[in-house]
Amino acid sequence: MTQQEQQEQQESKLFFSRHLLEWYHQQKRDLPWRRHRNPYYIWVSEIMLQQTRVDTVIPYFHRFIERFPTVEALADAPEEDVLKCWEGLGYYSRARNLQHAARQVKEQYGGNVPNDRDAVFSLKGVGPYTAGAILSIAFNRPEPAVDGNVMRVLSRYFLMEDDIAKGPTRIKMERLAAELIPEGSASHFNQALMELGALVCTPKSPRCLTCPVMEHCAGRLAGCETSLPVKTKAKPPRPEERLAALIEGRGAHAGRVLIRQRPMSGLLARMWELPHWPAPPAEGAAPGARLADAAAQDRLRRSLVKAGISARPSEHWMAAEHTFSHIIWTLQVYRCREEEGLPLPMPLAAEGLAVYRAEAAAAVTAYSLEGASANGAGTASSDIGEAGMTPSRGADLESVLLTDSIVPLEVEVFADGTENPEDMGAVRWINREDMARYAFPNVFLKLLNSYFDVQEGRKE
Description:
With 460 residues, the chain is an alpha+beta fold. It has 17 helices and 7 strands. It comes from Paenibacillus wynnii.
């Protein structure tokens, strides 16, 4: 690069920083986390904004801060309460990591979000972008905060054709972003960069004519702004067909449906859902094809039996999708009727025997599914009384419950290689009012609300 080219590039950088800040002060959105520099609020907002639109986040941010106004309040809350407050935002590991990190801040820094780079990086769930955002926005430290919006802006303005999906490109972008930060203006400048990418330099159909830095944008001048940034396409998520059981209670459980808690770790850990299992591939059909209705009901019935659930599929109710970064679940949901005859599996963790004795007397002679096993995180022991559990005929109630160990179901494999029902976890019979006590992934929240809407409409 010649001396003249270097000079022109430097002038372009100065133009960019100066005009971007001027634009930001005039056009910035009034967002709740921008009204002060509370590091905790900024941290919460940045975690929520990962993979989520601003207009979606705003009401969740208000509710979250109202429920957990300080680091200490979040650190001390039951996980179930945190997940319930996060319900609907998705990517629930964000909420768990945020609470874990809040406990780190409480224990190691007295509840004050640290302003040291290494300390912020040590917090669970905090990567380079989030660390840079917290340090720059809350503490005005000259740290780059490079997300997708920022990489798109920089790629276009400086005509950078590096693949932004690659690590070296991110490092290069971070160095460039750091060079652009005007002295003493890190907080506003980084927010301005993000704002420009969100409002003007959008992924499709960028609004170049309203851009404050259009005059020196190399990508626009070269006529390739819409083809930038360069990004290798990610591997598409793998489709997975699943059979779900919406089990309608009878008798004491009339008006309720059965839900289960997911395992303690892994995908959607400890959240609540309708029981569901992988569907075997349709014989002779293309991959991902839906199993014939009769075959699906038969497989679901077998799964329910092997899980020890006394219910039988009656009809296909609806289909629903849930998308993860690596999997797309297509749920074929079947209405099922609770039946007498089969007991619920042994509890995965023992209930307190003293509590159980006080509540279980009425359940001893009942042999149909009666709900509940282990106390999940944040659930009250009174659940036992509302939806008790009875073992099979002749079983000794005290011997079932006098254990501190976890008793998992056996996992078998069908002849076609599909896995037998997953660990059932804790289970509950719930009505609509009970839903407020449990955290559900979005797809199950919508399914349950749709079901109860229909039931309430029939009553009217």
